[in-house]
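Field guide to reading this record: the first block holds the primary sequence, the second block holds the structure written as C-alpha cells, and the final block holds curator observations. Each block starts with its own label. This record concerns Cytochrome b5 heme-binding domain-containing protein, catalogued under organism Adineta ricciae.

BLOCK 1 — SEQUENCE
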Amino acid sequence: MEFFQVFNSLQSKLLNLTLVQLPKRQQYTLKDVSAHCTETDCWMVIRDRVYDLTDFMQEHPAGSDIMLEYAGTDATMAFADKPHSLDAWLVLEKYIIGELVPEERMFDDSDYSS
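BLOCK 2 — STRUCTURE
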C-alpha cells in the first residue's frame, strides 16, 4: 500500500508542474460520464479527472475489451490495480477533458492545478 501512496504522490506532483496558470477544467458529474460508455464514445474517471479515451481504445496494450469494461465509470481502482508505468500516466494526460464536480471527488483538492 505504501508504494501505491508514494507513486500517486509522485504522479500528482509530476503532472501538476506548470509554469503558467492553467484554465479551469470543465466539471462533470458521474452521471454525465456514465452516458459515454461505448467503443465509439468512451469516457472514464481516474483520480477524479475525466478522460475521453475514445481515440485510445484501439491502442490500449490489453485491447479495447478491458477499456469497455470500465467505460462510463470511475476506473481509478482498476487503473491503480494493474501495473501502469509512469509513461502510461503521462499518456493518460493527453486525454483529459475535465474533472468531477467537487461534491463527487474522492481525492484531496491539493492534487489539482486547475
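BLOCK 3 — OBSERVATIONS
Residues 110-114 have pLDDT under 50 and may be disordered.
The domain at 27-103 is CATH 3.10.120.10 (Flavocytochrome B2; Chain A, domain 1).
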